[in-house]
Structure formats: C-alpha cells, structure tokens
Amino acid sequence: MRFLVGHVQGQPGVFAIVEEAATNLTALMPEIGTDLMALTRDPELVTKAAGLVGQGPQTQVADITPALPIAHPGTIICLGLNYVEHIREGGYEIPGYPALFMRGRNSIMPSGAPMVRPACSETLDYEAELMLIVGEGGRHIPEDAALEHVFGYTTFNDGSVREYQRKTHQWTPGKNFDATGAVGPIVVTPDELPEGAKGLKIESRVGNEILQSSNTENMIWGAAKTLSIISEYTTLEPGDLIALGTPPGVGHAKKPGPRWLRPGEVIEVEIEGIGTCANPVVDETAMAARKAAE
User: What region holds the Fumarylacetoacetase-like C-terminal domain (predicted)?
Assistant: First the structure.
C-alpha cells in the first residue's frame, strides 16, 4: 500500500493512495487515527485498511497538505557515511561500523513545509536519503529476520548545517536545527518495493539542477543490516524512524563550491517507486519578520 498522512480543508487523516486518487481511511475507520502509528502497531489493521481502498468519496492527492507520517516518533536514528563515494568526498576513511546519530522531533517537518536556513549560518546543506519506519519492534533482531520489522519506506532530506556539524566531533548540533529534516510525504509498504528497497534511483535537485544521483543498491549497510546493528544496543519500537544515509554530491563537497541551499529555492528529494519530498528554503530571520508583521 501507499499511504499519505495529511490534511484536507483542515481535517487530518490517513489516506491510501492509488495513482492520484486518495481514500480517507480515517473517515472510514476512525480507529486508524490521524497518523500511521496505529497501523505500525497492528498488522491486522493494515489488512482491514487495504480492503477499504477505493471506497467512499475520493480525494485528489494534490488537495492533501502533507503532515508527518508519524506525528511523534519515539526515536529518530540516522546513519551517516553509508555510500562509499560520499565517504570519500568528505575525506573520511571507510568505517567498519556505521556512524549513527539521533535527531529530535523539532528538527523534522513534513514535505511541503519550509526548510529553515538558520539565522546563525548560511551553510545549509541537503542530503537525499531513504528512510524506513519500524513496524514490529524488538531487541537483538537477527539480520535475516530484520526486514519483517519494517512497516514502510519513505523519503528523507537530512538538511545539515555544516558549520555547526563541524564544531565538535559529535554531529548533533548541525543535524538538529529546527525544521531542517524533511520527511515523506508518501510511505510505501515493503511488498510494493524490491527487498530492502534496494536498486532504487535516489536523487536530489533544485529545479533542473541535479545535485545528487545514485542508487540505494550502493548503500554499504542496507535496511536489514542497519536494523540488526541498531537493535544490538536499543529496543526499537513501532513508529521509530531510521534514515539510511546519503549518496555523493552534497553541497559542501561540490567543486567549485560549496553549494549551499539558498532562500527562495525548492529542494526536492526523489526515490524511485516511493515519491518526491519537496520543500521551499526560507531564511529564519526573514520568516520571523514576516510572522511579526502579520
């Protein structure tokens, strides 16, 4: 199935998407709620929802304002340095264990919402990434069973303020500015994609300018291995978000460069078979001034 969480005329809901038509699952089955959390916890609810697709009045996808697929994720874990060429462009050695860091809830926002370049730095970079949403949770998940714990896959733009990422050996500041990590809008269940979402074209662009272009086949640690590694040290829960790293072509490594995101641009991340996450870039100071004037 293909899901989209969002609002139509101010009313929140979970929608099942078939091409450009959307079925409001929340209206037909209120126990689903207004994000994907209930569905991640109950596979039987997903089966029931599948039987409702096409029923009731249909909404056009274009009329839905996206919201976060999981409104309040318990854990957001991101994997860095997962494509060999990206590792090399950053001047790192190829690691034997993935670079893992966490994001806070305030740092993420849905597709379509402004990506905010902070007032303190102009070094806002883009990172196209595949993201998975955990279904069944667990600890010490074996790699050969890990994909059974994936509810679905979506797109992610791991917007990074490089100046602050490099202030310490820990990446937390540069990866956690408010409204820099864009998620969604479409979530696709594993049965509609290749195993582990491998072999999918992944790209970022601004207008006709292609910034990154690669394939999820090039990940060092795929979805199964990543889930298994993370669950060695923490218990994964339904609705947790895990981002699987970015391919080469990021702005800080461009030559000539760097190529930072600029206010007024729209940054798009597209993954084959899933969809496109698009966000306008805004300046924090200018945004605050506009709000004050309203």
Answer: 75-282
Cα distance between residue 112 and residue 129, in whole Å: 17
From CA 74, how far away is CA 198, in angstroms rounded? 26
Token match 């990590």: residue? 181
CA nearest neighbour of 274 among 203, 217, 224, 209: 203
| Dihedral Cα 103, 107, 111, 114, nearest 10 deg | -160
**pLDDT at 152 exceeding the cut of 90:** yes
Which residue carries 């909404």 as its tokens? 59
User: Tokens representing 50?
Assistant: 């599948």
In a domain, 193, yes or no: yes
At residue 68, the pLDDT reads 98
DSSP letter string, 31-88: GG-SSSHHHHH-HHHHHHHHTTTT-SSEEEGGG-EE--SSSS-S-EEEEES-BHHHHH
CA distance 24 to 16: 7
pTM recorded for the entire structure: 0.96
Across 17-26, 30-39, 284-293, least confident range: 284-293
Is-contact 229 98, C-beta < 8 A? yes
Q: Do residues 198 and 208 lie in contact, with contact meaning Cβ atoms separated by under 8 Å?
A: no
209-245: pLDDT as tens digits: 999 999 999 999 999 999 999 999 999 999 999 999 9
CATH of the domain at 134: 3.90.850.10
Tell me, what's the pLDDT at 11? 96
Alpha helices in 159-283 (DSSP H): 162-165, 223-230
Residues 88 and 201 in one domain: yes
Q: Compute the radius of gyration of the chain from its Cα atoms.
A: 18
Nearest-angstrom CA–CA distance, 202 and 220: 15
